[in-house]
Write a structure and sequence with these properties.
Layout lengths: L1 E6 L4 E7 L2 E7 L4 H11 L4 E6 L5 H10 L3 E3 L17 H14 L4 E6 L2 E7 L5 E8 L1 H10 L20 H27 L4 E5 L12 E4 L3 H7 L4
Parallel strand pairs: 1-4, 4-5, 6-9, 9-10
Antiparallel strand pairs: 1-2, 2-3, 6-7, 7-8
Helix pairs in contact: 1-2, 3-6, 4-5
Length: about 230
């Protein structure tokens, strides 16, 4: 079994994979030593694969070293099924792209990961990463409006916001929520016209559902972990 770790900008999550099946997931809120020792009592962990886009955490290194699990930190030089990985490409993007490619090999794939930032990755049928986009996520948009103006408040996302607001807060929220959705729909619609075989995977903590019934869209909250599970070392 594999221990899979996803360290993002705002939180860390773990999963346990039996071959390619994700059998356990959890958000981390305790010391790494306690987490790993607890998991070792329940699962015969043989490998650990980590996606990290945050600062290095010496406590995680120490915990893994103590338990003796062979560990791979995913990077743009890791041997995997993808090709043409740009230098400096985030480990989270590589993992999510791997998860999509494992499920839709032979199709043109658009992977949308809606986290702190929203990333768009275009992958061809042979696993070459063709191009991509990084855009501010919903919370970043709301935070930017607050921090770069004198009077606009700091808001938390409200996904039930109407299309057109009737006061300052709903005006801001509409631009963040529906503006993000329109952005996604624009990219998907344009790329689908260029690539008739396009399939879209959407993942991340701030997932919005585009209204595009003619495009095949798969929502997969475990996409990153599925990608990590495909890596062998």
């Amino acid at each position: 079994m594999k221990l899979l770790i996803d360290i993002g900008n705002t939180s860390a999550k773990i999963a346990v994979a039996d071959n390619y099946n994700i059998i356990f997931t959890e958000r981390i809120n305790e010391p790494w030593t306690d987490v790993i020792q607890r998991l070792l009592k329940s699962y015969p962990l043989q490998r650990c694969i980590i996606s990290n886009v945050a600062a290095a955490d010496p406590t995680l290194d120490a915990a893994l070293s103590t338990c003796g699990i062979p560990t791979l930190w995913l990077s743009d030089t890791t041997d995997c099924a993808l090709r043409s990985i740009p230098k400096g490409y985030g480990a989270d993007r590589i993992a999510a792209d791997l998860g999509a490619y494992a499920q839709a090999k032979g199709r043109t794939i658009l992977v949308i990961d809606a986290g702190t930032c929203i990333t768009y990755d275009l992958i061809d049928k042979d696993g070459h990463i063709l191009s991509g986009v990084i855009s501010p996520g919903i919370e970043l948009r709301l935070k930017a409006m607050h921090e770069h103006t004198a009077l606009l408040p700091l808001l938390s996302p409200d996904f039930d916001t109407p299309l057109m607001g009737n006061d300052t807060k709903t005006h801001m929220m509409s631009s963040a929520i529906h503006g993000t959705r329109f952005e996604m729909e624009g990219y998907i619609r344009t790329l689908a016209a260029q690539y008739p075989d396009l399939i879209v995977f959407i993942t991340g903590g701030n997932t919005i559902r585009p209204n595009l019934p003619d495009t095949e869209i798969i929502y997969d909250p475990q996409l990153l972990f599925k990608g990590l599970s495909t890596i062998h070392f």
